[in-house]
Design brief:
5-stranded parallel sheet; alpha/beta; single chain; Rossmann fold; OB fold (Dihydrolipoamide Acetyltransferase, E2P); 10 strands; 5-stranded mixed beta barrel; 55% helix
Length: 347
């Protein structure tokens, strides 16, 4: 339908232009020149209008699919508002055209100005959707439609374990990670469920995860994904599908989830592993001063912790708990929670 409308508009404009050109023709009878100009203009306009209409139709269809695939709800809403505002500006700005040209040409030019102004308004306002909604006191949390990220984009899809762990905050603060953070609504719902649990410990973990997610907003861009991934029920499975579908990096401290994702070719960032890799390397024979905080699980053992949280088990120091003493590392081992050090008091 819009192809014919464009064809009619272009034909009308070309006919009017041909008629005006015919008026100035001195080598033909005036009436014949005007008629000939109008007929030639109509023919050219009909052919050109059809081509323009079909090209415009293809572009609109392509643009519509692109907008639906890549635009968020806030951007679409802002684009509609900007389009209406731009058209109103075009209505006012284009009024002089109505009195400057013949009616067919004036109306066509007037409508073109309105269309251009509306398009410009939609583009400008939608590009500033976040600022616009922020000025109105709203925070956009619309869905990001699943898509493969562009090469210049980096996004991190976090699960509840990474949020509860909290070290992702330090990783973004120190610029060890940079880019967007994506938090699916089903992950937020999972943490909300933990925060509402009857058990005090579980409730504390859920609230910490929500607090960390909120704190991330002050450090980097955080988008809430409305994607529900209805084809699977398990939260971990949803995360794997969503990460594979979007090309985002998965951030988790869940070993099983990390291994499942890595097998599927998904890049995984485990804050616990990163922290372990960045820990100070301590070797056998090294000496340092250590405060003992508690007794060990075996008789005679005292336990202290380094600044990075590494546990040090000191033999024969159970009676020195609460004191600070010089120790010498006798052996080291790897455990599920990281490096474990064994030491003895220095005489």
């Amino acid at each position: 339908m819009h192809v014919e409308v464009i064809r009619f508009t272009v034909t009308l404009l070309a006919t009017a232009l041909g008629y005006r050109i015919g008026i100035g023709a001195e080598f033909l009878d005036a009436d014949l020149a005007r008629l000939l100009g109008a007929v030639l203009g109509a023919g050219v306009g009909y052919v050109a209008g059809g081509w323009i209409g079909r090209s415009f139709s293809r572009r609109v269809d392509s643009l519509a699919s692109t907008v639906a695939r890549r635009s968020t709800g806030p951007e679409l809403l802002s684009g509609i508002i900007g389009g209406v505002m731009g058209m109103l500006v075009g209505v006012a700005v284009g009024i002089p055209l109505l009195v400057s040209f013949d009616l067919p040409v004036a109306v066509t030019a007037y409508l073109l100005v309105i269309a251009l102004a509306g398009t410009a308004g939609a583009i400008v306002v939608s590009a500033n959707a976040v600022r616009l909604l922020g000025a109105l006191g709203l925070r956009p949390t619309g869905a990001i439609v699943a898509r493969r990220l562009d090469a210049t984009e980096t996004a991190y899809l976090i699960d509840s374990s990474a949020a509860i762990d909290g070290r992702i905050l330090d990783m973004f603060r120190t610029h060890l990670l940079s880019g967007k953070v994506w938090v699916p609504t089903f992950v937020l719902d999972e943490m909300q469920g933990l925060a509402d649990a009857a058990d005090k410990g579980i409730r504390r973990r859920g609230r910490r995860g929500l607090d960390v997610t909120t704190a991330l907003r002050s450090i980097t861009d955080v988008d809430v994904l409305d994607e529900t991934v209805p084809e699977v029920d398990d939260v971990d499975a949803k995360l794997v599908v969503l990460a594979a579908r979007t090309g985002a990096n998965l951030v988790t401290t869940d070993r099983n989830l990390a291994q499942n994702a890595e097998v599927r070719g998904i890049r995984v960032v485990n804050p616990a592993v990163v922290a372990e890799d960045l820990r100070r390397s301590i070797s056998t024979g090294e000496r340092f001063r250590l405060p003992l905080s508690k007794a060990g699980t075996q008789p005679g053992q005292g336990v202290g912790y380094l600044d990075d949280g590494t546990m040090v088990v000191v033999e024969g120091a159970a009676d020195r708990v609460g004191e600070e003493l010089d120790v010498e590392i006798t052996s080291t081992t790897k455990s599920a929670v990281g490096q474990l050090l064994f030491a003895k008091p220095v005489a």
